[in-house]
Automatic annotation (TrEMBL):
It comes from the Bacteria. The keyword Transcription regulation applies. Keywords: DNA-binding, Transcription, Transcription regulation. Residues 15-74 form the HTH tetR-type domain. Residues 37-56 bind DNA. PROSITE patterns: HTH_TETR_2. This is Helix-turn-helix domain-containing protein. InterPro entries: Homeodomain-like_sf (IPR009057), HTH-type_TetR-like_transc_reg (IPR050109), HTH_TetR (IPR001647), Tet_transcr_reg_TetR-rel_C_sf (IPR036271), TetR_SbtR-like_C (IPR049445).
Amino acid sequence: MEYRQGSRPLRADAARNVEKIITAARECFHEKGPNVPLQLIAETAQVGPATLFRNFADKEALVLAVISRQLRLHVDPAVSRALSEADAGAALMHVIESIVQVAAEESALLDALVGRRGVLTTISGNIIEALGVLLGRAQHQGTVRTDVSEEDVIRIIAMLIGSVDTIEHGTNAWKRPVALMEDALRPVAAVRPLPAQTAVPGVELPVG
């Protein structure tokens, strides 16, 4: 995986250090939570603090780099498969699902962010482009509403990423809001059964 500093690719040794830092950061955030000290991340990566700060200005920059890597690892392959699928509507949904799944699996990292808007900056251009291509194809096929824009799709993804805050870590509860949003994109009301209902942690809803 190539890492860059500005427009230039990093030297091999520098790129290895960045990869070590990102791997250590993901491990530390999952094990220690959002308040893990950057010093501990540097120690886990076996690099000096100066090396860490030379590549990442602060904790948020490091968190976004980890999420960006996870998106490249897990969403890029989903995009490649989706672009070759005959049913563009289903393919579009698969890409959306893969993005939200990464967000759900990396919820320990999201907890370290002040807001969620920054996460959208980690979604690479090829993913954004693929979403637009799949949306156009699906609308042409009649499987997605024609009044839906690319901006709508991005905002829907942002909302779904935000919903991760309401989901218990380590569960598949993210699938329900994704299914609801996907059905809203269809030109007619969907009749498929929704994934199982789960409680919202910390929220007590009235019975009946």
